[in-house]
């Protein structure tokens, strides 16, 4: 009997231990940073400082856009051996880089054509058939430049003075903050960030341009349309277009939110007199509890670039909000270390995002019967 009693007690305590472990694992799973995609939470799977571990002087600066380089294609041929491209807001450089354990482990910087000290770069996109890059400028200029790698560095193919949406001014610090390229019809989508403190207030806009391509370069372009974003969008700080899902991802840094605008068929929207119908199918995805590479929550996220790789993994980069007293970019419960004091940008990864987004959009269009 004693032996049976002990075995039952052992089973009882084992079950208690299992329950405790379940509660603890649930707690830690929910305390990790995540993005809410429909009914599913996609946890943050990694984060990196965009600097080598002991070389803050060569950190990427004020990163305002990012691209995942595919394994094949013209862009992979231009930047062999690298996994990502980003753009430096203040330095006027495009960074080709790889990531290690919480830090950069390889990087090469390229100055963009017509470089000056006061360049203000805000976004980057790729034209897949040609491998050319598109970058946007504000402040000193209000334009996009189409650039290509010529073996020695980046050369200028085309510079486009952008058509201004209502209320925007040329040579302003409020301008083209996001870029995406729809390769199905060769359309460039430009996001204008908006400004809540402007008088009058500036609404975020999307602009659509048609590109005409030769064998290896853009031969001409045509402006087609401005589309005003609804009031639910506080800002537009980054774009990514998924041709497979016909969905535009729009990053709103003022709300720590990523929007998926479904049924975004660029060519159709450009031809319609009222394209606002596309905003009826919008999935709002909020970020919460995001942690730095040392596992600390921090303020403020200031997400400015978004991209998806071929596996559907989501990546975001920050453009740290600078302040002299380090109040706007710091760990929540600690004094800022040298990475925060140097305003080193961060990059974040969310594996499984693509499949979760696909399912969320499918569930949105085809809800289960009650």
Features:
disordered N terminus; Neuraminidase; alpha+beta; 370 residues; 6-stranded antiparallel β-sheet
Characterize the structure shown.
This protein has 370 residues and is of the alpha+beta class. It has one domain: 6 Propeller (Neuraminidase), CATH 2.120.10. The chain contains five helices and 24 strands. It has helices at 2-31, 74-78, 266-271, 338-341, 353-365; strands at residues 34-37, 40-43, 46-49, 63-68, 84-88, 93-99, 104-111, 121-127, 132-137, 143-149, 154-161, 176-182, 187-192, 205-213, 218-228, 238-242, 247-252, 257-261, 282-288, 298-299, 303-308, 314-318, 330-331, 346-350. The radius of gyration is 23 Å and the shape is globular.
Could you name the CATH class?
A: Mainly Beta
Q: What is the count of distinct domains?
A: 1
CATH architecture: 6 Propeller
Could you tell me the number of beta strands?
Answer: 24
Present the secondary structure layout:
Elements: H1 2-31, E1 34-37, E2 40-43, E3 46-49, E4 63-68, H2 74-78, E5 84-88, E6 93-99, E7 104-111, E8 121-127, E9 132-137, E10 143-149, E11 154-161, E12 176-182, E13 187-192, E14 205-213, E15 218-228, E16 238-242, E17 247-252, E18 257-261, H3 266-271, E19 282-288, E20 298-299, E21 303-308, E22 314-318, E23 330-331, H4 338-341, E24 346-350, H5 353-365
Antiparallel strand pairs: 1-2, 1-19, 3-24, 4-5, 5-6, 6-7, 8-9, 9-10, 10-11, 12-13, 13-14, 14-15, 16-17, 17-18, 18-19, 20-23, 21-22, 22-24
């Amino acid at each position: 009997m004693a032996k049976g009693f002990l075995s039952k007690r052992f089973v009882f305590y084992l079950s208690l231990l299992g329950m405790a472990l379940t509660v603890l694992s649930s707690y830690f799973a929910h305390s990790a940073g995540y993005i809410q995609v429909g009914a599913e939470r996609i946890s943050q799977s990694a984060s990196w400082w965009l600097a080598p571990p002991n070389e803050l002087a060569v950190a990427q600066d004020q990163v305002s856009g990012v691209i995942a380089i595919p394994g094949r294609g013209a862009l992979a041929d231009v930047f062999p051996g690298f996994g990502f491209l980003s753009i430096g807001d203040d330095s006027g450089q495009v960074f080709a880089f790889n990531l290690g354990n919480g830090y950069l482990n390889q990087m090469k910087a390229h100055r963009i054509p017509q470089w000056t000290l006061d360049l203000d770069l805000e976004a980057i996109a790729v034209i897949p058939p040609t491998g050319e890059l598109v970058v946007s400028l504000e402040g000193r200029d209000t334009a996009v430049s189409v650039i290509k790698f010529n073996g020695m560095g980046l050369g200028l193919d085309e510079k486009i003075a952008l058509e201004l949406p209502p209320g925007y001014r040329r040579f302003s610090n409020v301008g083209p903050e996001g870029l995406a390229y729809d390769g199905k019809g060769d359309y460039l989508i430009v996001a204008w960030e908006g400004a809540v403190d402007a008088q009058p207030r500036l609404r975020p806009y999307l602009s659509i341009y048609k590109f005409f391509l030769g064998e290896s370069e853009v031969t001409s372009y045509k402006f087609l349309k401005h589309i005003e974003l609804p009031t639910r969008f506080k800002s537009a700080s980054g774009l990514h277009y998924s041709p497979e899902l016909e969905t535009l991802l729009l990053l709103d840094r003022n709300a720590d939110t990523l929007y998926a605008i479904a049924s975004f068929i660029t060519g159709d929207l450009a031809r319609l007199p009222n394209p606002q119908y596309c905003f009826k199918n919008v999935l709002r995805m909020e970020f919460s509890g995001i942690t730095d590479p040392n596992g600390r929550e921090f303020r403020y996220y200031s997400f400015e670039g978004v991209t998806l790789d071929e596996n559907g993994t989501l990546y975001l980069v920050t453009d740290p909000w600078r302040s002299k007293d380090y109040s706007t970019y710091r760990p929540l419960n600690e004094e800022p270390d040298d990475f925060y004091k140097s305003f080193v940008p961060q990059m974040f990864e969310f594996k499984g995002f693509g499949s979760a987004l696909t399912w969320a959009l499918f569930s949105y269009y085809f809800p289960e019967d009650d």
